[in-house]
Amino acid sequence: MSSTDLARLALPSGPGSGAGSAAARLTRRQKAAIIVRFLLNEGADVPLTDLPEGLQAELTTQMGSMRYVDRTTLTDVVSEFSEELEAMGLTFPRGVAGALSALDGRISAQTAARLRKEAGVRQFGDPWQQVCNAGAEHLLKILQAESTEVAAILLSKLDVTRAAELLGRLPGPVARRITYAVSQTEAATPDAVDRIGLSLAAQLHEVPPTAFENGPVERVGAILNYSQAATRDDVLTGLEETDTDFARLVRKAIFTFANIPDRINPRDVPAITRDMPRQDLAPALAAALASDDEDLVQAANFLLDSLSKRMGDALRDEIEEQGTVSARDGEAAMTAVINTIRTLEASGEITLLVPEDDP
Questions:
Q1: For residue 297, what pLDDT is reported?
Q2: HSE (side-chain half, CA atoms, 13 Å) at 48
Q3: What single DSSP character describes residue 207?
Q4: What is the pLDDT of residues 238-281, one digit of tens each?
Q5: HSE (side-chain half, CA atoms, 13 Å) at 333
Q6: Per CATH, which fold does 255-359 belong to?
């Protein structure tokens, strides 16, 4: 049974239907109390917490004032309630807040924000669920910007593994202060925790929507990943002249054939070569080994040395059979190798290593 069903039954609308039956003399709230009591006795999960607080209080008071209901009355009330449920074709969420929740993800973020503002909607569903589902970067900003007490409450509401991850990313003194403050949260009341959750959820909703899913570093890095080597080098040189910090971040985001030794775990190389068509792998290695670029040579040797001796020797024989590979064909083959690695990373079969910052 949903909270909508219970609310519909509990709302006052006269003595109810079923004139002449044992249930006809009962009010809607009395019938609701009977239904709830019956369902609880049957072991059903009744989501009373989803009801407005006023209805919860009235229902509780009504149940406390009742003593005994005979079997005939119980049967009539249950039958009447079942008929009402069967006759109900469709229910709608109450108010703009409920409609926005029902349409979440189906209307644009801009439209939702405008409607929420115009209607003065301040309730965002379960605030703590939204806070706990927020991205790590947002949570880190909150943990460092809020008071130590609020940060301790937030840390306590998170899943322990996520809380440990965020704690490890905080500066040592901040992490120690928040950890100690957790020991002071024993006296926190549910109302206070709810108000904190609402405040933090409101902060998350105040973050303006952005047109792009990824940041500028990721977007530029993705573009340069698929650019020709000459174009990529020229763009990076220009970026370094214009913005050294941005260029450094873009270089970290780029993953090309030359970056393989720094980004690939040697244990993952057999999986990569197993999924890589030989018509791409052998030409890519041949072109890299014949290149004047020392980074490409090192990348090719890294792949070969990470294989078993038998597989490495067999692949070297294929490379010798390739002969001279044109620059265009070699670059296309190396791009195919990188695409295979990206596919394996997306499927979770391998994990790319994160390059360390230069000292």
A1: 93
A2: 18
A3: S
A4: 998 988 888 888 888 888 898 899 999 999 999 888 878 778 89
A5: 22
A6: Annexin V; domain 1 (1.10.220)
Tell me what pLDDT residue 110 has: 73
Q: pLDDT, tens digit, for every residue of 119-134?
A: 544 444 577 888 888 8
Whether the CB-CB separation of 341 and 257 falls below 8 Å is answered with no
Q: What are phi and psi of 17, to 5 degrees?
A: -90, -175
| pLDDT over threshold 60, residue 359 | no
Render pLDDT for 285-307 as a digit per residue (tens, 0 to 9): 999 999 888 999 999 999 999 99
CA distances to 130, 139, 162, 259 from 135, rounded to whole Å, are 10, 6, 11, 28
| 62 C-beta neighbours (distance < 10 Å), count | 19
CA nearest 249: which of 135, 137, 355, 139? 355
CA 76 to chain centre: 47
Exposure string (b/e) for 87-112, b if CB count within 10 Å is 16 or more?
A: eeeeeeeeeebebbbeeeeeeeeeeb
Q: Whole-angstrom Cα distance, residue 43 to residue 37?
A: 10
pLDDT reading at 164 higher than 70: yes
Domain 124-205: give its CATH code. 1.10.220.30
Task: Tell me how far the alpha carbon of residue 161 is from its chain's centroid.
Answer: 15
**Closest to 3 in 3D by CA, of 32, 24, 42, 37:** 32
